[in-house]
Amino acid sequence: MGLSGMHLSDLLYLVLFVGVSAAVLYALKRLQHTRLPGLPQRRIRILDAISVGPRQRVVLLRVKDRELLVGVTAQQITLLAEFPLSDEEHAGESIATASTAADTLHRT
After folding, report:
1. Closest-CA residue to 67 (of 86, 51, 50, 53)
2. 84 near 65, Cβ under 8 Å?
3. Are residues 52 and 28 in the same domain?
4. Is 86 helix (H, G, I), strand (E, B) or coil?
5. What domain count does the chain have?
6. Are 91 and 57 members of one domain?
């Protein structure tokens, strides 16, 4: 049965379903990277990652007051370098956390 045999109301329901599904997926993707107030802060954050080959990545992590550069393959994870956070990065992280919390509160 083609579009000519489909009732107009059925077509509208289909369009509405696709639109709502897209909106829900978009909202879930946005919420995936935001912290909700009252939840504990993640102790490990992925700051950046780059693929260097099939199933091989270099990943920059932040753990407490350190940034770790690790190589990740299918078989192992190797520490490549370790960097302490500077005072500016500590201050920027505090401001970013406060800003994210304020944005989240503003949206609710």
Report:
1. 86
2. yes
3. no
4. coil
5. 2
6. yes
Question: Does residue 49 share a domain with residue 16?
Answer: no
One domain for residues 65 and 97:
yes
pLDDT tens readout for residues 92-107: 555 444 444 445 444 4
Q: What does the pLDDT look like over 49-91, one tens digit per residue?
A: 999 999 999 999 998 889 999 999 999 999 999 998 876 665 5
What is the residue range of 103's domain? 40-107
d(CA 101, CA 97): 6
- Is 43 in contact with 35 (CB distance < 8 Å)? no
Residue 93, classed as helix, strand or coil, is helix
Amino acid residing at 93: E
